[in-house]
Amino acid sequence: MSKYPLKKLEIEEKITELINKMTLDEKIGQLNQLGPSPLGGFEISLKEKKQMLEAGRITKEEFEAEVSEMKWDDREDDIREGKIGSFLSIRDVKKVNRFQKIATEESRLGIPLLIGLDVVHGLRTIFPIPLAESCAWDDEVYEKSAEIAARETASMGINWTFAPMVDIARDARWGRIAEGAGEDTYLTSRFAAAKVRGFQGKDLSAPDRIVACAKHFAAYGAAEGGRDYNSANMSLQTLWDTYMPPFKAAVDAGVATIMGAFNDINGIPCTTNPYLYNEVLRNMWDYDGMVVSDSCAVSECLLHGNVETRADAAMETINAGLDMDMHSKCFIENLKDLVLAGKVSTETLDKAVRNVLRIKFAAGLFDHPFVDEALPEKVLLCKEHRAAALDAALKSIVLLKNNGVLPLSKKAKIAVIGELAESRSDMLGTWAAMGQAEDCVSLLDGLKNQGCEIIYERGFNVSGEFDGDAILKAIADADVVIAAMGETKDMSGEASSLADIGLHGRQNEAAKLIKAAGKPLVSVLFNGRPLAIEELNDTADAIVEAWHLGNEAGNAVTKVLFGDYNPTGRLTTTFPRHTGQCPLYYNHVPTGRPASAVQHSCKYYDIPVEPVFPFGFGLSYTEYDYSDLKVRVLGDKIIATVSVKNTGTVNGTETVQLYVRDKVASLVRPVKELKGFKKVELKAGEEKQVTIEVDKNTLGFYNAKMKYVVEPGSFTLWMGHDSSSSLCTEFTL
Ligand code: GLC
What we know:
about 725 residues; alpha/beta; 6-stranded mixed β-sheet; 5-stranded parallel β-sheet; about 30% helix; binds alpha-D-glucopyranose
């Protein structure tokens, strides 16, 4: 149950009073979410113009000249007539105030607008993409970046973010794996709750907090083949064991809104699925927030083929318990007739309107719809925020390989190769809201900020450009070579699924060329998903996973490269050896022929079944030794304690991970599941006892009758460095 219930008597009474005054049209207007739209005047659509540009049929100058004349229709008359309840995708504080003024002073009832935007990892101060930040394994980092994002967003008058995205992603081909916290349900649930706390705070009406939105409900990350928007088919047990808990964690943390997913689950589009909204959210979870569709998802039900008309799409959607229609206009065009025809009851309509108004009252929009237009310049990208972005970036970096070449000496002659080294825009990553490339520190910038004399040669890029001679010339006198590799920011995120998650272009060839020239090679990866880097792992002397880290990317990476920061990041997704292994995740079931050296076992004929890097993996500039694992069961608590010693010469922070396996159960259970983690600082040579408590009720699963059960029996428990650690013991429930 939510710790911050939105349903409060005084609000409900105000809503009732307002609803009683509203006309049918005004009620329906509250359920309509739109953004600015390009006015006509084009002989062809803007989209097609963009395609012509990409196809080289018009020049960039021609395109920009035409687009510059484009006028955006801000739909001010619709706002004035109460036909819009929420506006999205505006990034102009003056415009926000103008829209709120129209809504509150020029419409009949003066109902303020919810103004929404995808603030996923920062508004103007851009933090690491969520998949990167999740590697911090740190609730405070997760919460802090959301709190800062809320402060910046609220300063713009934008009062609703479409985040956190809490979709479990087990298939690295899926582009939106970049937006979430990886493959693990337990970690993503902690991430979800921390983000809701950060965005919403304890008082949703506070001037520096915003409404959060857990998305995409549900199982969007289970898209078949990792292809975005594709169908998700699974047992109800898998849905509830794996994909639902992060949403429940968000609801329990008080998330004010939830967004439906584009996909169907087992043949029913989420948008029109009464099981998800009426049954799960309202009846089972007693959810008091509001549900919005994804963009145009209501009308896309016609393409799913479960409805025949836009009116049917509107009817099925609102009757399923989804409250607000993003962008499709199916609600505003059809609900009146549907209500008058009795196909949508007034009770259903009023319930949806009540849910929308509850958020507006709880967010204090009736009391303070406007913002001080001077505020953004004081808040956006301020020093404190940038410092937090650097901290988050440092904690998101994962050291994947180091044969001793790192940390580098600042006196070394360093050659830097690869176009991503100079790229500032790619450091923003996907969904970068109001992030600006010029606010980002590239790898080259970071090296210069460290006072390094470096030789830079582009040499190669992700799209296949390659100049071997230039590379060899540039590295000839170098003591060490840093190769910036990976993906551009457009290669992950929405509608950016990849059929090949290997290094694109001739990146591996560049790495081999550098090694063949006898140079130590440090590969710095800038990417938005796990990559199949077996070849690189065989070639490079060191691999630093630097994701898309936001504004402070270059500073964070160089602090790690020179040892000013001892890397602490741990992977939250499995890195496959080959795309053909996808989906690949650590908490899989054993099967009757567990993968082994035996030919007839669950593996591939042509490549090893193990990943290149397992879930939870990450190196440090020091080493940690685990010993003396003990566990005891005390009532509902399983209390595990282990000794961790920093056996190296450098102070560090270790993330102790606790995994459990239910050895025998009525349904097959994963070979191991993360059930706890704790970070511990250890000076060189220092040893500490680390204790993690696990609530027995978290060791259950949905049985064949779809009942959540914790079955008695024997369990194995591991505490260690990552999901492949071997130190384990047993306990019995
Ligand atoms: C997109 C995304 C969703 C986002 C919405 C509004 O298509 O699926 O995550 O919040 O549209 O931009």
